[in-house]
Each structure stands twice: as C-alpha cells, then as structure tokens.
Amino acid sequence: MSQSIELFEQIRDDIIAGNLAPGTRLPQQKIATRYEVSKVVTVAAFARLESVGLVENGIGEGVRVRTIDREMLEDEYLIREAIEVQAIREACQNASQREIAELRRMSEEMESAGEQQAICIDQEFHLKIAKMSRSQRIVQALNQLQLVLMFVGQVTTANPNWPYSHARLVDLIEKGDPDSAEAEMRSHIQTARKNGIQAFMESRSA
Predict the structure, then answer these.
(1) DSSP characters over 164-188
(2) How many CB atoms lie within 10 A of CB 143?
(3) Is the CB of residue 183 less than 8 Å from the CB of residue 140?
(4) Closest of 15, 19, 11, 66 to residue 42, by C-alpha
(5) Can you count the helices (H) and strands (E) in the chain?
(6) Sign of the CA dihedral with 170 first, then 173, 175, and 180 last
(7) Which of 199, 7, 65, 205 has its CA nearest to residue 119?
(8) Is the pLDDT confidence value at 162 over 60?
(9) Quick check: 123 and 112 in contact, CB under 8 A?
(10) pLDDT in tens, 45-84
C-alpha cells in the first residue's frame, strides 16, 4: 500500500471518529510532520479525501475538514436517493435467491438491534443492494457517500424514529418489481432525509 493511501485512510478514520471536527484546518506542513510523510504524499492524500467528500479545498483558504450544514446534507441525500433508486431497480433484475435471503436476514436483525448496531447493519444492507445491481460504479458511489454520512453521524443526535422498516424493500426485490421497488426506496430515503436533517438541526440548537 502506498504512503498516500495509508495517510488518506488515517485522516479519513480520524475524521469519521470525530478526532478532526468539521471545519478543522489541515495545514499541509503540519499534517506532513504529524504523520511523518512528505508534502507530496500529503497532497495526494488530500486529493483522495476531497474526492470522497470529507475535506474541502478553498482558494486561498487551504484544506479543511468539510463543514456540515443543512445545504450540504440536502445535497448528500439528493445524491443518495438517485444512487439507491437505480441500485434497487437493477437489483430487482439481478438478485439471486441467496442474496435475497441474506438481505432479509439483515432486515430482521436490524429490527431488534441497538441503535449503533442497527446503523452498521443498515449500511451493509444498502451496500448489499448496490452490489446486487452488478454495477461497480454504483457500489463505489454508495461507499463514498456512506463515509460522508458516517462523518455527519458524529455531530448528530440520536434519531428517535430509528430503525426504519426494510422488509418491504426485500419483498419487492424478491418479487422483481422495479417500479414499486423504486417508489419504496425513494420514500425510504426521503424519510431518512427528513429525519436526518431534523436530528442534525436539533444537534446544532442543543
């Protein structure tokens, strides 16, 4: 593994864990010294972090951990809806019975899990649907988006409406009904969007 990838992963994990708060400046020399790497490695790592939406590089302002606000969340959920709607349409055409059974097991586990465990299962559930689409680009896009949502989760209060039911999504994939599955997924993500933004705004006013 190259140094730039290792540094990318270290900073990524620090951001997601909340060790680097939103808006934190990341001076190139300071980061290079802290992680004992060259400036060239640092620049390459910053480029990767920016490509997955965890940092922003403003002209004349340098690199900083991405700022979280309502506009940013609205944008991320809009992208998520587009990705996941297409993913489930493709999954309806391509999913195997074994994959559907695994998806149903995950849905059932989510219903009885604690919040943190349910969140992890939820991410795996949606990524499983993306993989069932047989599109590596969809999988890659959702992987990147989930990183950003994990980052947002560090500064958001618990959602009292969690977890949402996922059984209907599994039923429609098994039925092979892409139109109904699209409508259900769209409603699912829009509910997550509404509640996620509400939880974030409540966190800011707490």
Answers:
(1) PP-HHHHHHHHHT-HHHHHHHHHHH
(2) 13
(3) no
(4) 11
(5) 9, 2
(6) positive
(7) 199
(8) no
(9) no
(10) 999 999 999 999 987 789 999 999 999 999 999 999 999 9
What residue ranges define each of the domains in the chain, with the CATH number in brackets?
3-65 (1.10.10.10), 70-205 (1.20.120.530)
Tokens 């559930």, residue?
A: 125
Phi and psi angles of residue 79, each rounded to the nearest 5 degrees, phi first? -65, -40
Cα end-to-end span (Å), the chain: 42
Q: Which residues contact 18 (CB under 8 A, 6 or more apart)?
A: 154, 155
Q: How many CB atoms lie within 10 A of CB 103?
A: 23
Structure tokens at 184: 């259900």
Structure tokens at 148: 């950003």
> Token match 């940092």: residue?
55
- Look at the chain and count its residues: 206
